[in-house]
Amino acid sequence: MIAAKGYGTKHSFTDLKPYAFEREEAGPHEVEIEVLFCGVCHSDIHQVKNEWSNTVYPCVPGHEVVGRVTRVGAHVGKHAVGDIVGVGCMIESCRHCAPCQTGEENYCEGPNSWLATYNGPMVPAEKAPDGKNSYGRDNTFGGYSDVLVVNEDFVLKIPAGLKPEVAAPILCAGVTTYSPLKHWGVKPGDEVGIVGFGGLGHMAAKLAKAMGATVTVFTKTADKLKEAARLGVNGVLEDDKEALKPLKSSFDFILSTIPEKHDINPFIELLKRDATMCVVGALEPLKPVNNQEVAFHRKHVAGSLIGSLSDTQEVLDFCAQHGIGPDIEIIPIQDINKAFKKVEDSEARFRYVIEMASLKDETDFHQF
Amino acid sequence: MIAAKGYGTKHSFTDLKPYAFEREEAGPHEVEIEVLFCGVCHSDIHQVKNEWSNTVYPCVPGHEVVGRVTRVGAHVGKHAVGDIVGVGCMIESCRHCAPCQTGEENYCEGPNSWLATYNGPMVPAEKAPDGKNSYGRDNTFGGYSDVLVVNEDFVLKIPAGLKPEVAAPILCAGVTTYSPLKHWGVKPGDEVGIVGFGGLGHMAAKLAKAMGATVTVFTKTADKLKEAARLGVNGVLEDDKEALKPLKSSFDFILSTIPEKHDINPFIELLKRDATMCVVGALEPLKPVNNQEVAFHRKHVAGSLIGSLSDTQEVLDFCAQHGIGPDIEIIPIQDINKAFKKVEDSEARFRYVIEMASLKDETDFHQF
Questions:
Q1: In this predicted structure, what is the pLDDT of residue A294?
Q2: Per the CB < 8 Å rule, is B283 touching A303?
Q3: B21 pLDDT band (50/70/90 cuts)?
Q4: ω before A58 within 30° of 0 (cis)?
Q5: Most buried residue, A88, A92, B122, B222, by CB count within 10 Å?
Q6: What interhelical angle do B199-210 and B224-231 show, nearest 10?
């Protein structure tokens, strides 16, 4: 076992606090990573607070992890000590189901689906068809910590052109928006709408723009219209009915990144015939959709979950190539609870990234 | 003007009654049709009762019309006197928009969209961008009458192999289900689910089976399980959770034909990854969809509206070729109000078709 330190919680109702715990040493196919930076994702908050009713405690969140390889197992061939690497939302999958065989591990249909970087398998033993946990671990601890041990196949390469702290949010916010933009074929000249302009939304806007699309972001926050202008995309207040009117039936693709239940009907009206609106932010029941508008123009409402390993490597390389990345604010881990509050209040511009070196200032660690 | 007789109503709250009225004579590009049979569609009931809040009164419903050509305008080239022909939901479209130019008139994006066989333009003047009605008619009278006058381009040919009374429901129930089955690429070996087993549902089941799919119908009505067996398709009670469990993630395409607000979540769970559930029955807000299931397997919820003229001709020919058609019960028009009640109570097996010769027994006609 190796000693690990991080920020976590044992309950849904308490702040994150420093904890000391242990991790398994790297096996023959695993790499040990010194965590340098970890992005703060809205889903970390959902998970810590058990807002999806599936949190396994203790919870050490963090799935936008960039670090330096410090040790490799005997059979590791893809990464070497000293490499700057990334770990996203997954650290293992069943590897046998059809999606795994075709490189779509994020849709793993194994009995426990994929193993999340924190919170354990996506389908825990209690919900698995055979009542078992094929990963042998009910919980996993994420990147709000100083060290991570991950199978080499689930470790991404951070391109030289990307700063490690900028690369971190690409591992979730980046790929979660890149994957559907790619899957639904966004191409130069397309009109693309992005609903919600936070961590995911601002990455979606930058990626769609780099793909050659004309991008319009829809936001509830007036001062974000300036941010849209700064990124060179259109900005519209989503409650401004007069502004929405001329946009009716004009979008080739719309991506909703709002991380909670919302009304997508006003945006469905903005789609062209046969076009798709994809919802990636809210993993819960949405407000009722009026099928009249959907049927009258043969529209689609779809969803998408993060992205595959190959999508993740692609978006890292795409960002390096196009010179884009998230707008980040680096924080010490001691500020994490304040940062959570600001994310919830839509005050982040746009992604907090924890500098994990700050953990070294901590002297008093709790035990799980 | 020519004298016409039919069944209609001036209010949402009264039964259909016999009316005498006038129609324009056939213009140079129009054909006059003696109506032989007209199917009874659930949407006739919605429209008569103003359940979509858009009914133009007086209302003479009927858009599954089969008849004999009795007169043709000077420039008509497609049809001749004596031909057995059909008229579905549309009798005109703008002919200039992109969907009209590519043969998808049912998605006409002209200022008034398409002109419905009854109830006038889909977008009335009051709702049109320019406040006008390009068709020059605020209302149209449908096939619950003895004569119809329609532009030749919107008149379909009834293949010799199809009885006129059997062909009638194909003009709406048939094409409304055929069009999405074709659009989403149903092919031999596919697992296809049909939700709702009434007029549309039983046509969908027959069509999907003839396309080579393995078909499962979901119904709330226990005695319809025997009907499913009779048609050679699987039948499942949609409230039977134990029966649904093994069907999870097993369908390539699911079509919902239920003509009112319902919960589609149990059926979304039955879709394979990347598959589509299309809702054609309910033209209103559905119950909230849980995006977690949609996103976790990148599923789609879509809608579809009837079908194009070419889809309509195709499904008529397809039915003739495969020897299939709706299960019908022929009624005299005097039974129409009873038939409406039975359709609402899910007691029809499966489609009522009015024999319009029965109108000749009527002696006392009201005036609009």
A1: 97
A2: no
A3: very high
A4: yes
A5: A88
A6: 30
What is the DSSP-derived secondary structure letter of residue A270?
A: T
d(CA A3, CA B172): 69
Q: Where in chain A is the domain with CATH 3.40.50.720?
A: 174-303
pLDDT value, residue A304: 98
Q: Name the closest residue on chain A to residue B263, using Cα atoms.
A: A288
Give dist(CA A271, CA A253) in Å, integer: 7
Of B109, B283, B295, the CB nearest to A295: B283
Taking CB atoms and an 8 Å limit, are A99 and B294 in contact across chains? Answer: no
The CATH number of A2-172+308-315+327-367 is which of 3.90.180.10, 3.40.50.720, 3.40.50.1820, 3.40.640.10?
A: 3.90.180.10
Interface of A with B in 100-139 (CB under 8 A): 107, 109
Name B68's Cβ contacts closer than 8 Å, sequence gap at least 6.
B33, B34, B36, B82, B83, B84, B85
Nearest to A295 among B99, B280, B290 (CB): B280
Per-residue pLDDT tens digits for B238-262: 999 999 999 999 999 999 999 999 9
Q: Measure Cα distances from A278 to A189, A194, B291 in Å.
A: 19, 10, 10
Superfamily per CATH, domain A174-303 = NAD(P)-binding Rossmann-like Domain (3.40.50.720)
Kindly state the average pLDDT of the residues B194-202.
96
Which regions of chain A carry the CATH code 3.90.180.10?
2-172+308-315+327-367
The Cα A220–Cα B201 span in angstroms is: 42
Residue pLDDT, tens place only, B77-132: 999 999 999 999 999 999 999 999 999 999 999 999 999 999 999 999 999 999 99
The whole-angstrom separation of Cα A76 and Cα A44 is 30
Give the best residue of B263, B278, B294 to mutate against chain A (max A CB count within 10 A).
Answer: B294
Determine whether the interchain pair B294/A301 forms a contact, defined as Cβ–Cβ distance below 8 Å. yes
Give the chain A residue whose CA is nearest to the CA of B280: A295
Contact status of B300 with chain A (Cβ, < 8 Å): yes
**Nearest residue to A4 (alpha-carbon basis) of A325, A367, A331:** A367
A291–B305 CB contact, under 8 Å: no
Cβ neighbors of B335 (< 8 A, separation 6 or more) are none
> Is pLDDT larger for residue B32 or for residue A346?
B32
Per-residue pLDDT at B322: 98
- Quick check: helix, strand or coil at residue B15? coil
Contact call for B286 and A287, based on CB within 8 A: no
DSSP A35-104: EEEEE--HHHHHHHTTTTS-PPSSB-----EEEEEEEE-TT--S--TT-EEEE-SEEE--SSSHHHHTT-
The top-level CATH class assigned to B2-172+326-367 is alpha beta
Which residue of B286, B297, B304 is in closest CB contact with A289?
B286
- Mutation target among A291, A294, A306 for the B interface, most CBs of B within 10 A: A291
Chain B residues with CB under 8 Å of A258 CB are: none
Strands A366-367 and A351-355: unpaired
pLDDT for B281 equals 87
Q: Do B300 and A300 touch (CB under 8 A)?
A: yes
Strands A156-157 and A84-87: antiparallel
Yes or no: say if B6 and B18 are a contact pair by the CB < 8 Å rule: yes
ipTM score: 0.91
For residues A139 and A146, give the distance between their C-alpha atoms in angstroms, rounded to a whole number.
18
Residue ranges, chain A, pLDDT below 70: none
Which tens digit of pLDDT belongs to each residue from B124-175? Answer: 999 999 999 999 999 999 999 999 999 999 999 999 999 999 999 999 999 9
A288, B291: Cβ pair inside 8 Å? no
